[in-house]
Amino acid sequence: MKFIDEFRDKEIAAALVQKIHRTSTRPIQLMEVCGTHTVSIFRYGIRTVLPEQIRLISGPGCPVCVTPNQDIDLAIALSRQSDVIIVTFGDMMRVPGSTSSLQKEKAEGRDIRIIYSSLEALNIAKGHPEKRVVFLAIGFETTSPTIAVAILRAEEEKLHNLSFLNSQKRVPPALVALLQSKQVRIDGFILPGHVSTIIGANPYQFIAKKYGRPAVIIGFEPLDILQGIWMLIKQIEENRAAVEIQYRRVVHDEGNPIALRKIEEVFEKDESRWRGLGVIPDSGYRFKESYKHMDARNFNVEVEPSTEHPECLCGEVLQGIKSPLECHLFKKVCHPENPIGPCMVSIEGTCHTYFKFQ
Amino acid sequence: MCLGIPGKVIEIEKNVAKVDVGGFVRDISLDLCPDVSIGEYVLIHTGFAIQKVDEKEAEETLELLRQMAEAI
Fold first, then answer.
1. Do A197 and B50 touch (CB under 8 A)?
2. This prediction's pTM
3. I need a surface site. Which of A74, A104, A112, A289 has the fewest CB within 10 A?
4. CB-CB: which of B6, B8, B33 is closest to A4?
5. Which domain range does residue B17 map to?
6. Crossing angle, helix A350-357 and helix A35-43, to 10 degrees?
């Protein structure tokens, strides 16, 4: 496929690996923020071709994984209302809440449906005017504008039976939290390519300017990742810190202004709770006043008190503090057929990726 | 979750495009990326075009990498 095959060229990849080996002189830790990067890095064996002194650590970039139990428990409580249909993206089905999951509830007969695009939520609401349709809306900035479009259309079409359980997250504030926590040394960031098609490079400038760390926005094919890592290593070796774009074919400094306007029309920034990272200021969205009537958090339902599995290390894994290999549930009790935490459920979860490729 | 794949726009009707993704044709919303023409490539995420793929930038990146590889 065009724009994919060319970026998998073996000869150029080998040359980039040589460049990286020649340029690197010191031990460094780079964090790949995005779960899609973690999968690509394992799939193409990137770790195995890097010098030993370059360590890649996985970050919190999996929306399914960082959705806190409170929100999953609320979705489960809503699904138990006889007049409610829950719709959500596929991976959310199997994520364990405190005592159940949406998949278990579906098996019990609740009406819970998987959608691929936010626009399908509109069709389901139109097809079931007698029901309340609740969209458990998760995702980073890549997905947020698509959810905003669904909200704007629902308003336009006066769809009064569709509401949104909004659990979306914003990436840059989570990076601030990671840099401030100092629990893990991060010498440079592999920034998420597709989040950045929407937000651009500008919102990351604080990484270089305030914290003095290099950061590169990188694509997902092997040449993208190798070139991006090389760009990071060059910055580190030259004692520079800047935000650079490797993935220039789809990422521009200003992002996608039309998509950003859609988000701004519907949402305003708000604090948000992340699994593992806790509550982070400005890292989520709340509805603007004129769209508050579509907030599913307005529903009056009793939600069980949220608890986490005491031994699951998902929270530490999401911050790069621990590797899945350090979790004693990993592969023994916790595996894709019986996930204890969300990092084993999502196909982009770090534990799932380790299980599949390690 | 943040997966995106490139596809070629082959037809446009209002704000929906038919996009060829590796031989499969799908209806893709242009709400977030209205300024595209037939023959151009877009990056697709959950049924939406979220950005145009800039062919010139892609070629420049590859050319830079080819030159680097030859110089080794």
1. yes
2. 0.96
3. A289
4. B6
5. 5-71
6. 10
